[in-house]
Amino acid sequence: MKALVDLFIPRTCVVCGTRLDLGENSLCTGCLAEIPFTYFWSVAANPMADTYNALIQERTERGGFVEPYQFAAALFHYNHEEGYSKITQSLKYHADLRTGRLFARMLGRRLSGSPMYFDVDTVIPVPLHLRRLWKRGYNQAGIIASEIARETGARLETRILVRNKYTKSQTRLSHEEKSLNVRDAFVLRKARVRYPLPRHVLLVDDVFTTGETLFACYRVLREVFPPYVRISLATLAYAGER
Ligand SMILES: [Zn+2]
Hints:
Blueprint: H1 2-8, H2 29-33, H3 47-59, E1 72-77, H4 85-93, H5 97-112, E2 122-125, H6 130-136, H7 140-152, E3 155-156, E4 161-163, H8 175-183, E5 186-188, E6 200-208, H9 212-221, E7 230-238
Parallel strand pairs: 1-7, 2-3, 2-6, 6-7
Antiparallel strand pairs: 4-5
Helix pairs in contact: 4-5, 5-7
This protein binds zinc ion.
């Protein structure tokens, strides 16, 4: 069947564009072998977690309480030059859910085998504004989150976090503008929070850049989740400082 489909629609590598062989999916063997993995899932203090924890330390009123270091991991470096950024772009802009799911499962397997993430019991995707959801037809973070939930055996929670502000595209904004753009973008539906509360939440998005969006979600979740509930991050790609 695949061979027949290939005759009409040649499948090509998402990263380099060469034509795929029958046994290859989304990526050619060469690009698959060269994925710039971050290995953040096995290192607690990595650049992504440092950025996230710095935001928590700088912007949170702690009232004497010092929050423990939170975990954060991405599967691969965004790596625009070598084309690996096209993995998340094809999921977000070209509805390539198949590729998105493939890499989300890859990430999920690494997280469930990690001593830092093995106890994740709830997975929450960064929500899209309803207007954007209608336009796009799916939430790319939701696609990734559902595969991670499946791989880790955690519960997928999509009802408590809502995006109530239709934010402009983040790509052309400065750091400060991004921060303002997402600061009050999310709200928590307290009535939909289920008890007992989770112990370890995993917030999921497609790409981590400055961490502003994920931090905005974190802040809203903290309104109901006390400090003993760990709020970790997972994304497919890491585009932050190295
Ligand atoms: Zn390739």
